[in-house]
Design a protein that fits this description.
Number of strands: 33
CATH superfamily of the largest domain: Cupredoxins -  blue copper proteins
CATH class of the largest domain: Mainly Beta
GO cellular component, one term: apoplast
InterPro entries: Cu-oxidase-like_N (IPR011707), Cu-oxidase_2nd (IPR001117), Cu-oxidase_C (IPR011706), Cu-oxidase_fam (IPR045087), Cu_oxidase_Cu_BS (IPR002355), Cupredoxin (IPR008972), CuRO_1_LCC (IPR034288), CuRO_2_LCC (IPR034285)
EC number: 1.10.3.2
Largest sheet: 6 strands, mixed
Family: Belongs to the multicopper oxidase family.
Strand content: 35-45%
Strand order of the largest sheet: 10-9-12-17-14-15
Distance between the termini: 47 Å
Number of domains: 3
Oligomer: single chain
Number of helices: 4
Subcellular location: Secreted, Extracellular space, Apoplast
CATH architecture of the largest domain: Sandwich
């Protein structure tokens, strides 16, 4: 009888786990949407006629199925930013890396399990600047629901998606950026949940508003879906407690300002303990560039309105940091530490593969087809390899089928002692279960171009952010590594002219893109790929 007595509780546990897991299914139809923004009528491309697109909510352990139908005139793919894609690398959605794009009038079904992750992630188009309007939140709840949070359960959760807006077709913006050789023009406005707010010359501009109750705690799920800019975000009269970043829990961090790079997410608790009224939430650019370059100086606004307060009541405006306030930005980025619960993976202490990856922008001669280029064109590289997207097949297909001539496995572990950049589709092969440590070093290759913060995003993995600093990395700085409770991230803002050290275990076979999440830099070549 003893084996039977043991079997019954085991079967009950398995059935309970199976009952908790679900299949969450969506259909995204990507097509043209007529919209009025900044007093202009436009046609933009969205998922399901929604800017931002639909919010996806799943529970850890669920299987997500998204049927993507491309009714737009552009080839595209959808990337599930931050999802590990364990044994489902074909579904990562990295254009020409893990799949060829979905052609106009075509469709593709993404299906993958979400395991070992909780928090705020997001999804977006991974093709040209189309992600400026094709994006949405991906929220992963704990299996225990709100009782599974390592902080008091909030009264309500509010997604806040920060973005950019152009008054032109964004595909045309990208094409012009290539023809001039200088990258895309700056955006015409910033947005909160797809709306620019009322701090612009267009009277009656759409503005996001959320009603709250006095004396409650709200969880703001903040996503920087902007294409090319870091952002400061504040709510007048209120403060935050940061509890997670990039879908990894942090020790509680009190602040009155959120600093967030493209691709990153921040979960922050906000108590509604202010005098009942109307309060602006606002976002504007954090400009980290070391040379003067024009940037979008608009301010996106929304409103937090307390229940019972009339719509005509005046709203208080927060005092945002100056655009170039590197001290405030650095304090925020460097103050976060991981929660490091006993159940969380520990930092690997033995490193199998060390790398130093330098990156930056430089000037190059205009190409013959860059018909609007004058003087020079921008180029970017990692370890002096300017990444070229493959033409014949996606990298994962070439890897799986052994298609020759698509890529080379000679991405260097360290920056080569040569001048100039090599245009190549080069990948770095690593062994399964190897612990990889990468020093990410920002370089100023051109004094005329300077440098800036670069949000470096790694597909397929989270990584431990062990340390970061200004200037050049020196091996003696290993003594500053946080091996106890480092941030766990999928996107790190490497300081302008500075460095960051990341460490991860290569336990997820596939082809995994690592690139700058400033989309202006991606076609310039600021990317590489891990093959494992």
């Amino acid at each position: 009888m003893a084996p039977a007595a043991t079997l019954v509780p085991l079967m009950l546990a398995l059935c309970t786990a199976a009952a908790r897991a679900a299949v969450v299914e969506h259909t995204f139809k990507v097509g043209g949407t007529k919209i009025t923004r900044l007093c202009m009528d436009s046609v933009i491309y969205t998922a399901n006629q929604q800017p931002p697109g639909p919010t996806i909510e799943v529970t850890e352990g669920d299987t997500l199925v998204v049927h993507a139908v491309n009714d737009s005139p552009y080839p595209l793919s959808l990337h599930w930013h931050g999802v590990f894609q364990l044994r489902s690398g074909w579904n990562d959605g990295a254009n020409k890396i893990t799949q060829c794009p979905i052609q106009p009038s075509g469709n593709f079904t993404y299906q993958f399990n979400i395991t070992g992750q909780e928090g705020t992630l997001w999804w977006h188009a991974h093709s040209s600047l189309l992600r400026a309007t094709i994006y949405g939140a991906l929220i992963i709840k704990p299996r225990k629901g709100s009782n599974g949070y390592p902080f008091p359960a909030p009264y309500e959760e509010i997604p806040i998606l920060l973005g950019e807006w152009w008054n032109r077709n964004v595909d045309d913006v990208e094409i012009d950026g290539y023809l001039t050789g200088l990258g895309p023009q700056i955006s015409d406005a910033l947005t909160i949940n797809g709306m620019p707010g009322d701090q612009n010359s267009c009277k009656g501009s759409a503005m996001y508003e959320v009603e709250v109750e006095y004396g409650k705690t709200y969880l703001l799920r903040i996503i920087n879906a902007a294409v090319n800019v870091e952002l400061f975000f504040k709510v007048a009269g209120h403060t935050f407690t940061v509890v997670a970043a990039d879908a990894s829990y942090t020790k509680p961090y009190a602040t009155d300002v959120i600093v967030i790079s493209p691709g990153q997410t921040v979960d922050a608790l906000m108590n509604t303990s202010a005098s009942p009224g109307r309060y602006y939430m606002a976002a504007h650019v954090f400009d980290s560039k070391t040379v003067a370059v024009p940037f979008d100086q608009s301010t996106a606004t929304g409103v937090v309105k307390y229940k019972g307060v009339p719509d005509y009541a005046p709203a208080a405006m927060p005092s945002l940091p100056p655009h170039n306030d590197v001290v405030t930005a650095g304090r925020f980025y460097w103050s976060l530490v991981g929660l490091a619960r006993p159940s969380d993976p520990a930092v690997p202490t033995t490193v199998d593969h060390n790398m130093v990856v330098t990156f930056g922008l430089n000037q190059a001669p205009c190409a013959p087809d860059q018909t609007k280029c004058s003087g020079f064109a921008l180029v970017a590289a990692m370890n002096r390899n300017s990444f070229q997207f493959p033409e014949k097949a996606s990298l994962l297909e070439a890897f799986y089928k052994g298609v020759p001539g698509v890529y080379s496995e000679d991405f260097p572990d360290f920056p080569p002692p040569v001048q100039g950049f090599r245009k190549a589709t080069a990948v770095k092969k690593v062994k399964y279960n190897d612990v990889v440590e990468v020093v990410l070093q920002s370089e100023e290759y051109s004094s005329a171009l300077g440098t800036e913060n670069h949000p470096i995003h790694l597909h397929g993995f989270d990584f431990f952010l062990l340390a970061k600093g200004l200037g050049r990395f020196d091996p003696s700085m290993k003594s500053t590594y946080n091996l106890v409770d480092p941030q766990v991230r999928n996107t790190v803002a490497v300081p302008a002219g500075g460095w960051a050290v990341i460490r991860f275990m290569a336990n997820n076979p596939g082809m995994w893109f690592m690139h700058c999440h400033l989309d202006a830099h991606l076609p310039l070549g600021l990317a590489m790929v891990f093959e494992g």
